[in-house]
User: Which sequence fits this backbone?
């Protein structure tokens, strides 16, 4: 019987060895986030139903749900994603889908296992972190795995380890000098900041195994379509096998033509690059005008009194929806006014994008990859 093994291990060499061992035995893995509170951990285990957990290399597996349904031959990874609604989804990736992603990424980046070396520093329970390890294991490319992001460790990695490749999110990249790396793969949320030429922005989903569009150009084997509504659809061998129910049944994610409908909206530029505008359900329609939260948030964050910002739409009897700015002041005692923020946004964007309501908060919820939690 092929089992699902929960890897309850910090990032490091032991994690890689445990992963190799599980895969060699035909088992799939679920990576547990050590930061999860007890209730969230229990909910995750209940949704994914791993048979056992490994808490240390060489230790006896801890029984979790020995009566759980087996995984299928070829299944490699069970990973959860909250999606845009906050409802947890349990997805199954196969060795084939992970290998297809690894090969496509390495082809685009011209990775040579004899001279390149990855560094994994993002959370391993997300594909942003786990994908680095998987690419290395599946292609024989050296990797060093850290238990978390440490700016000093990452900055010194090229000299200390010989690192040439690293995957980061924008908040982490802002804390290091990227120039010593051959490539910095940048995932997570949209990034409007000017970056050097060795930083490559990616677009993808957990369902696609991670980023499958690099700097607006699909990886080899990845097809992109945009329908009449502007929704992005993807077709690729990297797409997960499906969504797993508690009884082990897996439902496919693609339509009968093999397309994954992402729920994201986008368009093509004149030179054939994909621009992702955002989630369809994040779009704010106010007075008949379309307002994307991202550009408004970027504008708000350039105000000298703003540390962070989230923009949402709320029902409005006059406008249909009104633009609401939820702002973290840079200094608790000095908050920006709504008028000041409206004027600031109007200097950079059309007037209809300026917020009509302001709420001040101490902090905004973000995922471990730095994405704002909108819902």
Assistant:
């Amino acid at each position: 019987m092929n089992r699902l093994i929960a890897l309850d291990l910090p990032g490091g060499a032991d994690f890689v060895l445990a992963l190799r061992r599980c895969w060699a035995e035909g088992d799939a893995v679920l990576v547990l986030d050590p930061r999860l509170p007890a209730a969230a951990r229990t909910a995750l285990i209940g949704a994914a139903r791993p048979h056992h957990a490994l808490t240390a290399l060489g230790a006896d597996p801890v029984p979790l749900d020995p009566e759980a349904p087996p995984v299928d031959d070829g299944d490699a990874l069970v990973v959860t994603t909250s999606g845009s609604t906050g409802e947890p989804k349990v997805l199954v990736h196969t060795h084939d889908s992970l290998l297809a992603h690894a090969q496509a990424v390495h082809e685009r980046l011209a990775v040579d296992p004899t001279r390149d070396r990855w560094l994994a520093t993002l959370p391993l329970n997300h594909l942003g972190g786990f994908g680095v390890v998987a690419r290395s294991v599946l292609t024989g490319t050296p990797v060093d795995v850290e238990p978390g992001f440490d700016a000093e460790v990452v900055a010194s990695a090229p000299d200390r380890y010989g690192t040439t490749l690293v995957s980061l999110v924008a908040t982490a990249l802002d804390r290091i000098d990227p120039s010593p790396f051959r490539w910095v793969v940048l995932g997570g949320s949209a990034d409007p900041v000017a970056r050097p030429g060795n930083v490559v922005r990616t677009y993808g989903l957990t369902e696609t195994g991670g980023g499958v569009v690099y700097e607006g150009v699909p990886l080899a084997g990845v097809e992109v379509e945009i329908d009449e509504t502007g929704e992005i659809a993807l077709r690729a061998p990297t797409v997960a096998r499906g969504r797993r129910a508690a009884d082990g049944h897996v439902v496919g994610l693609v339509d009968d033509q093999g397309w994954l409908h992402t729920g994201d909206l986008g368009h093509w530029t004149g030179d054939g690059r994909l621009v992702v505008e955002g989630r369809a359900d994040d779009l704010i329609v106010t007075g008949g005008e379309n307002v994307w939260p991202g550009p408004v948030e970027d504008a708000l964050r350039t105000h000298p009194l703003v540390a962070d910002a989230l923009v949402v739409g709320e029902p409005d009897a006059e406008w249909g929806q009104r633009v609401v700015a939820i702002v973290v002041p840079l200094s608790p005692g000095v908050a920006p006014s709504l008028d000041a923020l409206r004027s600031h946004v109007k200097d950079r964007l059309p007037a209809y994008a300026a917020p009509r309501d302001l709420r001040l908060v101490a902090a905004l919820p973000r995922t471990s990859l730095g994405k704002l939690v909108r819902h």
The chain has eight helices and 24 strands. The CA atoms of residues 307 and 330 lie 4 Å apart. The mean pLDDT is 93. Helices lie at 13-24, 38-48, 95-109, 127-139, 151-160, 170-173, 293-301, 338-346.
